[in-house]
Design a protein that fits this description.
The protein starts with a helix and ends in a 17-residue tail after the last helix. It contains 12 helices and 2 strands; from the N terminus they run ααααββαααααααα. It is an all-alpha fold. The longest helix has 23 residues.
């Protein structure tokens, strides 16, 4: 196993910088007047009391700092429908509810706006945007949907999308004989094998995600490569058997090894077939996508 490959397994996901550009702070005026738009109790009054202070739920923050944690919590509330479009999101209320500074609130709203979840307009305030405006390919939104009321739809859609992306990527990758990437793919299989023997699900899942990311990169299609974040997010979503990558198994490992061997041999058909079989390890997937074709 190469040192580089092992190091990758312990590397954290790159963090969003969250830096505010010139003039960005003024786009979310802190002294928004409640006006007549706010009818009834504050949207925070019925929220989970554990959301009362950023930092209490740091598990989803991925180490992104205080504003990253607030982005996570507000994003989850928006996607779950707890924060709807019927009333504005008043920065002052958010700051008081989560006990954070106005700068943290503004940075967080800026990130959510970039994801298509909210919009800030003069004389209107900051409001939640309709689902049609959300960037549904954003890894964070994928995760939030997968653990909210839309979890079943999200997992089904991810399965369908992966069925479209990854067999094609495997076929294309077989035509690119980059020895360095081939070695890294083999390293990932070795790591997965060792993790399976040690019942180390975390290391297995990290190697699994790296394997699929490398394969898409090896395909040599920049548009497919741009979608690698979707696959990574799909692999991080747990809670139900969707594909063979959801949990460490001997069958899943064998399919990964077959893919790596086919790529090393330059066998595009075998690589595509092995990927399709990997994505249909669980019978539940057969209701979503067809079984691999017989040739």
């Amino acid at each position: 196993m190469s040192t580089l490959a092992h190091t990758m397994m312990t590397a954290a996901r790159p963090a969003d910088s969250g830096l505010v550009g010139p003039g960005e702070l003024d786009r979310y005026p802190y002294a928004e007047s409640p006006g007549a738009d706010r009818v009834g109790p504050s949207p925070w009054d019925s929220s989970d009391p554990e959301l009362g202070r950023v930092g209490r739920r740091a598990t989803g923050s991925r180490g992104r700092g205080l504003h990253g944690q607030l982005v996570q919590q507000l994003g989850q509330m928006i996607v779950s429908g707890d924060l709807g479009a019927d009333r504005p999101l008043v920065p002052e209320e958010i700051g008081q509810r989560f006990e954070v500074s106005r700068t943290v609130v503004r940075e967080s709203l800026r990130v959510l706006e970039a994801k298509g979840l909210v919009s800030a307009r003069p004389n209107v305030g900051t409001r939640v945007r309709p689902v049609s405006d959300w960037n549904l390919l954003d890894p964070d939104i994928i995760e939030w949907r997968a653990f909210g009321p839309q979890r079943d739809d999200q997992r089904r859609e991810l399965s369908e999308l992966r069925w479209t992306i990854e067999p094609l990527a495997a076929r294309l990758a077989a035509g690119h004989g980059r020895e360095d990437v081939q070695q890294r793919l083999s390293d990932m299989v070795e790591i997965m094998n060792h993790a399976l023997a040690q019942s180390d699900g975390i290391t297995f899942s990290r190697a699994d995600a790296e394997f699929h990311t490398l394969l898409i990169q090896l395909a040599g299609n920049r548009m497919l490569e741009h979608l690698s974040g979707i696959v990574s997010a799909a692999l991080q979503v747990s809670g139900g058997p969707v594909t063979g990558c959801d949990r460490p198994t001997e069958v899943s490992l064998a399919h990964h090894a077959r893919i790596a061997d086919a790529l090393a041999a330059g066998d595009a058909h075998a690589a595509e077939s092995a990927m399709r079989q990997l994505l249909t390890v669980h019978p539940e997937v057969e209701r979503v996508v067809p079984a691999p074709r017989e040739h």
